Amino acid sequence: MGDSALYSADAFTALAQMPDESIDCVWTDPPYRLSNGGITCVAGRRVSVDKGDWDASGGLKADYKFNLKWTAECRRVLKPAGTIWVSGTLHVYPIIGVALLENGFRLLNDIIWEKPNPPPNLGCRTFTHSTEIVLWAAKMPKGSRHKYKFNYQEMKRENGGKQMKTVWRLTAPGRAEKRFGKHPTQKPVALVDRCLRASTDPGDVVLDPFTGSGSTGVAALKIGRRFIGVESEEEYVSIARMRLEETAALVAPPPDYSCKFHQLTPPAYAILSAQFQILPCTPAGATESDQALREDGKLKYVTARHPDRQRHGTYGASGIGDGRLQSPTQRGSRNQIRCIAA
User: Fold this and answer.
1) Could you give the 3-state DSSP secondary structure of residue 10?
2) Contacts of 309 (CB under 8 A, 6+ apart)
3) Pick from 26, 29, 62, 25: which is nearest to 133 by CA?
4) Residue 136 exposed, middle or buried by CB count within 10 Å (0-12, 13-18, 19+)
5) What is the bridge-based pairing of β-strands 131-138 and 39-42?
6) Which position has the higher pLDDT, 139 or 31?
7) For a FRET experiment, which of 70, 78, 175, 221 has its CA 20 to 30 Å from that of 16?
8) Share of the chain above pLDDT 90, in %
9) What is the pTM of this model?
10) Residues 86-99: what's their mean pLDDT?
11) How far apart are CA 232 and CA 235, in angstroms?
């Protein structure tokens, strides 16, 4: 399935406008807050660990407040039986674990991702960092009638008929996963893939509020899940867009063309559906009527701009069955009629 949406927006802006209990699973890799002027080793060279302002620490209290806020929003949008996966290093996962607990999550597992060939420790004052932690937590407490999903048998089969342990030895992303560009904390698709197969079913909606280069979306689309991603840095939005577009072209289209879009206000942008055409949510000069979106399970009305005419207009659009859209004045593919979430 290629049913996806990618928002170029601040995570809090996007999350605040998502409806309650609309997401089956969250998989995300939030900022580690490690941009502190240090150095690390990449491909045998000394490089700065500074990644950008988005990764700068505001101090322990500020960092904890940040993690408490976004995990609370994730809990709100998760369905009662939903779960969340959060990846991080020792620098961030302890406070994220506390934030999850304070927000009412139930911790289920701590997956240890072991890297077979980690970068060397240049300072030679500690052991070489060769692992990262992925916390898995359920929204509801133990004993709730809402049972989280765990595809136990599939994981057991994958592990040769034995119960799968929490230490997973997986290589870091290779060149194939970075050919459109790379993210400094990019995770291997195989890691996300296993998590999602363990905790979701085909057709489930997966959210990543810190999408980065789009690995969560790539993994989700490849195994038939729907995906909503949010990323604030334009450089990584561009990389994620290309990766998701490529993946969507390789997977079968959804059996119907129903889709749900969330309302976003400026300065948010949206890339909608499997075609990933990017346009502002609120075009310059647009009126409230220009931004009307109506739906009853299928796309009915969207604000759209035809790329040939370069003009805005509201089109009554309904699925034709082969994935195209039709309106009183136009008929064509989603590449020809580019949708704007309004």
Assistant:
1) coil
2) none
3) 29
4) buried
5) unpaired
6) 139
7) 221
8) 56
9) 0.73
10) 92
11) 9
**CA 138 – CA 174 distance, rounded (Å):** 31
Rounded CA gap, 85 and 30, in Å?
11
Going by pLDDT thresholds of 50, 70 and 90, the confidence category of residue 55 is: low
Domains and CATH numbers, the chain: 4-250 (3.40.50.150), 253-342 (no CATH)
Instruction: Give the containing element (helix H, strand E) for 272.
Output: strand 269-272
Give the span between the Cα atoms of 112 and 166, in whole angstroms. Answer: 6
HSE at residue 195, side-chain half, CA atoms within 13 A, is: 35
CA angle, 249 then 14 then 296, to 5°: 65
Nearest to 33 by CA among 22, 17, 49: 49
- What type of residue sits at position 217? G
* pLDDT score recorded for residue 91: 83
Contacts of 203 (CB under 8 A, 6+ apart): 1, 224, 225, 226
The model's pLDDT over 217-240, given as tens digits with 9 standing for 90+, comes to 999 999 999 999 999 999 999 999
pLDDT single digits (tens) 226-276: 999 999 999 999 999 999 999 998 886 655 433 343 444 433 334 333 333
209 in Cβ contact with 70 (< 8 Å): yes
Give the pair of three-digit tokens for residue 267: 């300065």
Give the phi and the psi of residue 98 in degrees, each rounded to 5.
-65, -40
Whole-angstrom Cα distance, residue 63 to residue 56? Answer: 9
Q: How confident is the model at residue 336 (pLDDT cuts 50, 70, 90)?
A: very low
Provide the phi-psi class of 58: left if phi over 0, else alpha when psi is between -120 and 50, else beta.
alpha
303, amino acid identity: T
What single letter denotes the amino acid at residue 67? N
Tokens for 108, please give them.
């289920």
Q: Which residues does residue 326 pair with via DSSP β-bridges, in sequence order? A: 318, 331
Quick one: CA dihedral 15, 16, 20, 22, positive or negative?
Answer: negative
260 CB-near residues (< 8 Å, 6+ apart): 22, 295
Q: Does pLDDT of 297 surpass 80?
A: no
